[in-house]
Amino acid sequence: MRPLRSVVDTSNWPAGKGNSRWVADCSLMGYSSVQRASMRPRTSSKIDLAQPAGNAPQPAMQDREIPLENWPRRAALQHFRAMAQPAFSVTADVDVTGLRERAAAHGATPWLAYHHAALEAANGIDAMRQTLVDGGLGVREFGVVHASSTALREDGSFGFVTLPRDASLARFAERGKANLARVRRASGSLFAGDDPGDVRAQTLVHMTALPWFAFTAFTHARAAGDDRPKIAFGRFKPVAGRLLMPVAVDVHHALCDGVHVGRFFERLQAQLDSI
Question: How many domains does the chain have?
Answer without folding.
Answer: 1
